[in-house]
Amino acid sequence: MFFEIIKSVILGIVEGITEWLPISSTGHLILVNEIIRNENSFTSSDLYLYVIQLGAILAVVTLYFRKLNPFALSKSTAEKTATWKMWFKVLIACLPAAVIGLILNDFMESFENWQVVSAMLIIYGIAFIIVERIHKKVTTENIDSMSYKTALLIGLFQVLSIIPGTSRSGATILGAMLVGCSRDVAAEFSFFLAIPVMFGVSLLKILKSGLMMTGSEIAILLTGMAVAYIVSVIAIKFLVNYVRKHDFTGFGYYRIVLGLLIILFFTIQSFM
Q: Based on the structure, what is the number of domains in the chain?
């Protein structure tokens, strides 16, 4: 129990950082679970690794509560209308993932291995470097001016994140930039898209588990969620400030290095 709590704290830190930065939370969680081995542990289960994301989601809701809340008394009628329109864009962007994700969810679970994760880390790392070099024309400076067509196109890119190691935020940010969004709009819209998508995925995993968790497992999960929440608040603020001054090229190189390290780690391990 004590070991699992400590591991849950570590995984919560990893989840909180990597869920929002475009560097693949799956890749990092797989690597941490391999380094901190504990066979058949609750923290290694799909249920834990998906539901811990709810802690990260709550950080977005907290930080952007006023912007996300169409019922805020402090908002004017025009602001409330703009908020509803933003939510419609988010829901439209979520439709491809909801449909295709549900169909392919079980099939894609068979690809949750280090080979696929490392390959996707490297491929999308290269993609970030290339996209940053061609990202010149910005047609969407804020979410209010984003068209519903643009939102749908971003949603189609988000579908790519069902491939382990791709990174949900990475796929949506790349897609948003390719269709003309500024970096800060791409990052912020990625945050908002995560709310329905990750709530849906977590709910699906909980229902598939049959709600069968012991008291100690619930405590372990809540610990990870709490840590993920706190760290996510810091990570989101960092990314928002970062994209105002820098591009995503650094994340691209980081992904390539991490992918190569995972390949090296598991290759060495296979000879031991």
A: 1
